[in-house]
């Protein structure tokens, strides 16, 4: 499972979606989908712009969480 931490990161930096949109040149709707974890993919360019604007690393924004398999029979 991929977990998106954009909302937490933006909260820590006290920046809203409109501000991030202005800083990155990305559409507010795309940022909102990522913010609310309602997207099924993200472009590298988007991650690059967000990282530059928020002065962070990619792993600060997205995280892979290994799901435990239930091997019960």
From TrEMBL:
One Pfam assignment: HTH_26
UniProt cross-references to InterPro entries, sorted A to Z: Cro/C1-type_HTH, Lambda_DNA-bd_dom_sf
Ranges in coiled-coil conformation: none
Transmembrane segments: none
Location of the HTH cro/C1-type domain: 6-61
Name of the protein this chain belongs to: Helix-turn-helix domain-containing protein
């Amino acid at each position: 499972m991929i977990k998106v931490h954009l909302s937490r990161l933006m909260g820590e930096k006290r920046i809203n979606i409109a501000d991030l949109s202005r800083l990155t040149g990305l559409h507010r709707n795309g940022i909102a989908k990522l913010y609310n974890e309602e997207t099924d993919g993200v472009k590298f360019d988007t991650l690059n712009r967000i990282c530059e604007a928020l002065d962070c690393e990619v792993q600060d924004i997205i995280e892979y969480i290994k799901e435990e398999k239930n091997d019960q029979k």
